Amino acid sequence: MVKECRWFKGGAITLCLVSSLSCNASEYGFPLSLRLGAGVTPSDPTDSFPYCFDFKTRLIPGSAGSSLFRTSLIKTRTDFLRELSVSASAAGKYAFFSGAASGSLDEKYSFSSDSLTWIVYLQTDLGKSEVYDESLKAFASQLIESKNFAQFATRCGQELITQERRKASVSAIFSISNISQEQRKTLEGKFSGEANTAIFSVEASTSFRNFVKEAAKTSRITVDVVTVGGSGAADLAALFTDYSDLAAISQILRTYTAKLSFDNSKATSYQSTKMTRYGWGGNVVDFSIADIALSDYYITYRDIDIIKRKAYDLLNMAAQGQIELTTDQTNTLKKAYSDSDALIAKIVQTARACRDDEKKCISAVAFTAPSVAWPKLDPVGTLVQRKKTVECNESPGPISFQVKFQCSQTSVFRGVAKWANISNVDAIDRFGQRYTPVVSAESIDLRSAYEEMNKQYGGALTEGAFLELVTGETIGSIAAAKARGWSIREMTLSFLFGAQSANTGGLQTALDFTFFDGKGNRTGRQAFMY
């Protein structure tokens, strides 16, 4: 009797269908691209084989499943791949063996303590198809009859792909970076995930909106849309006008997946059977341990590669005069790059040795990512709205359908920044409208701001904790913060907009603030969402 078994290690999962004695079938996941009715070799499933069988195909009745909406906070790369239904083992085989290391879904994302990623996704199970009435082609049958098993494996593979499953998912991936550990911890506490098959609850939508608003006050939000198994990449990111509107985001995802069917989607996983079923007498090798190791290697490889690339980018920017680094910062980045590069080479070497000889598979714990004190280059710490006044008057003529009131709004933002390095500020809303805020002189002293916030914490807030919250830097005292150039100023912006009611709460938009130095170079960026 066939049953399912799993091997677990470090969060990585390798699935196979096994008999009571040995593994007679395997499952291969995305991003592998195999062919139903063709052969595969477990040690390198990225290599395709010609068809050695004649066969028919059919859909498996009742194999389609329901759709699932989900919001998730992503803390690790393992979580990210699992949510997107991506096989870390398969991704590792592409990265280590096929020369196709670029283009993986997760390579651009960092899951370090200074960043945060969350996703909203919709997955729909479109069902399975299978081969039946399969029979060896004449040349393949002759190889079996002559017991030329080695040539058969080279020509046809060691396993036959007998089933494929088609699941389609579309994910909106949101991320922020350059945040402090305290800010990350606070945001993690505010996130509440939910999964269901219909629509998100009112409570979930409200919680999500509040979370995104807080995140937007911390750093600029970026969004990518990733499709797996669908009809191809879709330019959906431009459709998101409000990152906090869970209902609108869900509808965009639902509209995309509504166009998908089994026929116009792609396979996301495959099941195989050993060629021994058809008379092949070659050696059957169990690669399950190697698959587990490759999953762990790939996760570690990507995390370290992010460090290497970040160090390279900062050093390159410094070489071109775009940023200034101290000697200590430069040496730290050079060491991070060198250490990461050496570790990556060792991981790739170990992965290849592990594939060829299971005894050479060692724990990925041996490859520890370097700990790097990244320089804080953004002169902007925090940005909060301190005051908002809205005044609406009925327009003498119609503005647009159901919009009868002309409103004006004045918003005052308080910015903690290294203002001596900033000469100009621009703000752009989600429609591309540009605003130039009026920046005041120093509006409140850092110590006064600390005492004001300390009252909210019942007198338990230390100067260091306050400074990390408002600057993102680890600074021991307010005197030291002033010496580094930190101060507080207020920025006033004025808006005009139409509304359906005179009792509007004000403009609903996102502002992207850009800070410039005296030479016109962009020195910082901060986003704020109402």
Automatic annotation (TrEMBL):
Keywords: Signal
Domain of life, source organism: Bacteria
Secretion signal, residue range per the UniProt entry: 1-25
Protein name: Uncharacterized protein
